Amino acid sequence: MPRVYTGDMVLRDYALAQVVPAPTMRRRKVRSKCRIMKPRTTTEPISKCALRSLAVTCLVLCLAAFPARAHDTWLQPRRVAVLPGTIAQLDLTSGAKFATHETAIKQERIESARMRLNGRTVDIKDRAPEKKSLELRTPLSEPGVATLWISLAPKGVDLKPKEVRHYLAEIDAPASLRQPWESAKGGKPWREVYTKHAKTFVRVGRPKSDRSWSEPVGMALEIVPEKDPTALQTGDEFPVRVLKNGSPLAEFSLGIVHEGGTNRTFKKTDAAGRTVFKLTRSGRWLLRGTELRAAAKPAGGWESDFTSLMFEVR
Questions:
Q1: Once rounded to an integer, what is the mean pLDDT over residues 5-26?
Q2: At CA 307, angle to CA 142 and CA 95, rounded to 5?
Q3: Are the beta carbons of 76 and 310 closer than 8 angstroms?
């Protein structure tokens, strides 16, 4: 007969189990996947799993220290060449590594979104939020080179001293801005109001005489191509102008990065706001720059405009 346990018997057996010597209790050994390593500097063993966990934690903390708002924002067509009558689809996104979509821009942040084709400009009103981007759609009815752009509403941010140092290096800020900050040794709080602008192009059919791509669209900080951005090939030189409120911006640091790359190459604009980039590879490229300045308001702080231009090389 099977043994029937009463409540008292259960308690009695549990009490006896507490005093049974460990060697008489047979337990199944479970092998751990973590190998024990004995470091030279401590008497406590550290497992490889613990080391991996520590490394991941450190990486997350380091990434968190970088100011997310300095990440690039760009407007990316899903197809850079379409037939007349096509509805163009574009992704508005931000990320630390072009052209990986990381953060969707909220619809309410868009101050303006427009398209110009053969000199005619229309608003882009068809928008749909996605997980990592905001999709914009607009019909392209006739042959030409469509210019598409957005401007976001200003937004404020506060940065810590370590974040400021990384941020100034990331945008290649001039010495005239870096030196006062370094001299103050982070003693003053960094409060900044920034505005972002992004532009791109789509080739529609076989353009004939549409050169509206070479004309400014009126953004506060704008990159204007001087060569058809939809007909670029590997090995070409790509001349551009940088305008601030419609006027040439001299000695401005403009960066360029190829998709998947992390190293940005910066070039300064000349007195006419011009500079030229050598396109060494096919694929997608991003031009980007930040114009940082002391705020004009009595409260002080900083103001900035970010601008980008995305294009593709065959």
A1: 41
A2: 95
A3: yes
CB-CB contact of 125 with 160 (8 Å): no
Place of tokens 């924002």: 73
Asked whether the beta carbons of 147 and 116 are under 8 A apart, the reply is yes
What single string gives the DSSP state of each residue in 195-243?
EEEEEEEEEESS-SS--GGGS----SEEEEESS-TTS--TT-EEEEEEE
- State how far the Cα of 125 lies from the Cα of 112, in Å rounded to an integer: 10
d(CA 257, CA 53): 32
Q: Is residue 113 within 8 Å of residue 123, measured between CB atoms?
A: yes
- For 114-125, write each residue's pLDDT tens digit: 999 999 999 999
Pick from 307, 290, 302: nearest CA to 192: 302
Contact 236, 227 (CB under 8 A): yes
Q: Are strands 221-225 and 237-244 parallel, antiparallel or unpaired?
A: antiparallel
Report residue 190 as tokens: 């960094």
Helix (H) or strand (E) holding 305: strand 302-313
* Rounded CA separation 180/186 (Å): 10
Q: How far apart are alpha carbons 272 and 278 in whole angstroms?
A: 19
| Cα 251 to Cα 291: distance, rounded to the nearest angstrom | 11
Report the length, in residues, of the chain.
314
Read off φ and ψ for residue 311, nearest 5 degrees: -150, 170
Higher pLDDT, 16 or 276: 276
**Which helix (H) or strand (E) element contains residue 4?**
none
φ/ψ of 27, rounded to 5, equals -125, 145
Rounded to an integer, what distance in angstroms lies between the CA atom of residue 288 and that of residue 199?
A: 10
User: Beta strand 302-313 with 190-204: parallel, antiparallel or unpaired?
Assistant: parallel
Kindly indicate the confidence band of residue 59, based on its pLDDT and cuts at 50, 70 and 90.
very low
Q: Which residues contact residue 190 at a Cβ distance below 8 angstroms, ignoring those fewer than 6 apart?
A: 158, 159, 160, 161, 163, 164, 181, 301, 302
